[in-house]
Amino acid sequence: MASLTDLRFSIRCYTLSVCAHRHDYAQLVLPLQGCINIELNGHAGRIGPSGCVVIPAGTVHSFAAEQQAHFLVVDLPALPVGMQRLDTPFVTLPAGLQRYAAFVETQLQQAHGEALVRDMGRLFYQLLETQEWQPRLDSRLQRALQYLERDLAVTPTLEQLATNSFLSVSQYKTLFKQQVGMTTGQYLQQLRMEKARSLLAFTDIPIGIIAERVGFQNAPAFSRRFRAHFGLSPRQLRSPRPLR
Predict the structure, then answer these.
(1) Which CATH number fits domain 139-238: 3.30.420.40, 1.10.10.60, 1.10.3720.10, 3.40.190.10?
(2) If DSSP states are collapsed to H, E and C, what string results for the chain?
(3) Domain-by-domain residue ranges, the chain?
(4) Per-residue pLDDT tens digits for 178-212
(5) What is the pTM of this model?
(6) What's the rounded mean pLDDT across residues 104-128?
């Protein structure tokens, strides 16, 4: 196992300009909000919140990201064995790891000690070791995800999504659950909550307007769903934390 004292988490944003570099440690890039375009080892792809980019040590990679996009970046001295055998740097992030990445993000935004970060890193690496990694999503499902992300105020029907993906409804539902690890409704709710959190944290847009932008008819319904998802209300998230 890699030395967990050398595993480092960070939350990062990138620019629209294309950048390229290499480093002597391995790296995982997990989109939390928005997408990143990245190229390495002859592979080019666009990865969003359900995906992960696996960058081996010493690999030159070029990348550019959407505005307001942010990512959980994990630097580690060595990739788990299963990730070393991948024939593509782009993989689908299992649902459990998606939720754990969101938990890590929340902890990094709060006051925390080195012991907690080390423990989070140990569990994260163990989770990586136990996964059966799947290549990035079927191109038909990528069409569906792009359709969902286009306007979060709209709730498309399964028939619309299946037609857009060139699948029957039953094929679409089965493939979506297999590859994304959740239903379309659950995934759309996750997109909406992450978008709302980003708007609350980085803009001064009124809560009522944010609610409308992520598909809610009124602010109270949005606040209830937001609290159930994150454990705090939109106003609590937006309020500055008191100095300690």
Answers:
(1) 1.10.10.60
(2) CCCHHHCEEEEECCCCCCEEECCCCEEEEEEEECCEEEEECCEEEEECCCEEEEECCCCCEEEEECCCCEEEEEEECCCCHHHHCCCCCEEECCHHHHHHHHHHHHHHCCCCCHHHHHHHHHHHHHHHHHCCCEECCCHHHHHHHHHHHHCCCCCCCHHHHHHHCCCCHHHHHHHHHHHHCCCHHHHHHHHHHHHHHHHHHHCCCCHHHHHHHCCCCCHHHHHHHHHHHHCCCHHHHHCCCCCC
(3) 4-135, 139-238
(4) 877 789 999 899 889 888 887 887 788 999 999 99
(5) 0.60
(6) 83
